[in-house]
Amino acid sequence: MIFITIQKFSKLFIISSIFLLLGIYFCNHWIEKNAEPFLYDSTSNLPTKKIGLLLGTSPYLSNGNKNLYFQYRIEAAAKLYHEGKIQYILASGDNRKKNYNEPQKIKQALLKLGVPKEHIYLDFAGFSTYESIVRCKKVFLEDDITIISQEFHNERALYIAKEMNIKAIAYNAKDPQLGDYVKIREFFARAKAIVDVHMLKKQPKFLGQPILIGGIHQ
Shortest CA distance to 164 belongs to which of 126, 113, 201? Predict the structure, then answer.
């Protein structure tokens, strides 16, 4: 009797896992398909926008080496600014701990590449891609933006932005392709994004008073 129960449970588990993986695969395909018309690899045909939303990541990997995802995003944002494709950079990242401040690290790196501090704004509560996108609209009052990150990340960010009624395009920073872990993580993150947008309808952990980009500087 116990053997039969275990056998039934195993079959149910296998069937459920198959449907779950199919669902996640569909989410990935849907997000990629919808993002394709809004992705840009070159600045030559990239529309000009007021705001470039630069999505944060850690400057360093867990082994202490420099994070090329971080470096290439910084270089891409500075390139867009210097070519006049964006007027301001909104650097959004994680600052939930005193000793971890992605936005400040981004600002320091951008200053070294010649971006004036008056044209850099910081979002310290961009704890996730979802929160960075929502806060861009609800706190910084911007709904017409260029998102800056690697292509695989931009695809998810664009999906969230479009569902939030943000008029967004994305510029693809160089992809260092450091390993499969990042891509596997992204595979599941896309399914979570669809759940967050359509089912949970999440709100950012923090909102706060509106900040006008181009007005009084931080």
Answer: 201
Residue ranges of domains in the chain: 2-200
CATH of domain 2-200: 3.40.50.620
Token couple for 37: 């018309």
Separation of first and last alpha carbons in the chain: 68
pTM to 2 decimal places: 0.86
Render pLDDT for 60-69 as a digit per residue (tens, 0 to 9): 988 889 999 9
**b/e for 163-178, b at 16 or more Cβ within 10 A?**
ebebebbbbbbebeee
- CB distance 125 to 205 below 8 Å: yes
Backbone angles phi, psi at 208, to 5 degrees: 95, -175
SS3 71: helix
Mean pLDDT taken over the chain: 88
